[in-house]
């Protein structure tokens, strides 16, 4: 079995540019079938990426921020767009994809609430043409 090494305890930060409506931090793997407790992901298996997100104060409905998924992984092909919801179930942002880019489009919730943030996750897997080996995966906010 070929493994993908991710440094133990290492959480690759991802920050959106100042002109964007939000930022990301604490990007890491969720331990599971394909990811061990020391941060090593099995090659060829699916895994879950977890992260913290926050909305920049003054953001408006329709503003967005993005998270770039590094090659050689991709979002799980069966993963549909979804909502980031508040603790009371109100929609904060719609999450969609365009290739390797995950887009978080804000709703009017952000215009009436402050300190909007939360935790989220989504599934990823290996791109079909990827060969076994060690990869440095850097998630970037744009």
TrEMBL record:
Q: Which GO terms describe its biological process?
A: cell adhesion
Q: Where is the SDR-like Ig domain?
A: 49-127
Signal peptide: which range, if any?
none
Q: Name one Pfam family in it.
A: Big_8
* Protein name, as recorded: SDR-like Ig domain-containing protein
Domain of life of the native organism? Bacteria
Primary location class: secreted
How this chain sits in the membrane, per its record, is: Peptidoglycan-anchor
SUPFAM superfamilies with a match to the protein in the record: Bacterial adhesins (SSF49401)
Where does it localize? Answer: Secreted, Cell wall
Q: Which UniProt keywords apply?
A: Cell wall, Peptidoglycan-anchor, Secreted, Signal
